[in-house]
Amino acid sequence: MDKRIIYTKESLKLFLKFGVRSVTVGQITGHLNISSKTLYQLYGDKTGLVNACFQLYRDNSREEFDKLEADCTNVAELLVLFYNKMISSLSRINPNFLNDISNYFPEIWDSNEAFGVTFTKQILTRGVEEGIFHNSIDVEICAETLSLLLRSMFEKDPFSGRDSKKLLANMLWPFVRGICTEEGLTEFRKYRRFAVGV
Q: Do 82 and 195 contact (CB within 8 A), yes or no?
């Protein structure tokens, strides 16, 4: 495997665990057992490394979403499983990872990817086409709103240690009820029971 890929994966693990700003170049090179010169040759500087790591994070997210989409039989199942996965994934990483990138590396930051806006738009568009969501909804606004709800749960760690199924139920269900058709509500009720055990 290409050393740059290995170094990016290992650096991403550090950033996900501790945040970006708290991890120094010295800690990275020590963890990777390489010299600073090697790191700078491969990435240019820490910003280059952060960019490579965030690109890998986005690529991994895209891969997970594509797999979910391929495995799901309908939009209701896809939305529930996608948000369950997002909540579970975000609860396992240091909130400083995304906060540091958005605050200190704005040229790298893409909140559409970090909090699933792009994927949510795809799900909502498909749901409108399938009659699950009202055709009067503004897909862009709904996707951004769901993303903001998700982001608010993890930015300042207020929900640390909370059960992901409860978070999903209290974040997603009230919103979804407002945009669903009758057919959509019927479909979502099946997955709500599955997801939150009610």
A: no
Number of H helices, E strands in the chain: 11, 0
What lies within 8 Å, CB to CB, of 83 at 6+ separation is 116, 146, 150, 168, 171, 172
3-class SS at 136?
A: coil
The pLDDT-based confidence of 89 (bands split at 50, 70, 90) is: confident
Cα 187 to Cα 123, 182, 198: the distances in Å are: 14, 9, 15
Instruction: For 55-160, list the strands marked E by DSSP.
Output: none
Cα 122 to Cα 119: distance, rounded to the nearest angstrom: 5
| C-alpha of 69 from chain center | 15
Distances (CA, A) of 71 to 10, 67, 75, 102, 165: 29, 6, 11, 32, 20
The pLDDT tens digits for 132-187 are: 999 999 999 999 999 888 887 776 556 666 776 677 777 788 899 999 999 999 99
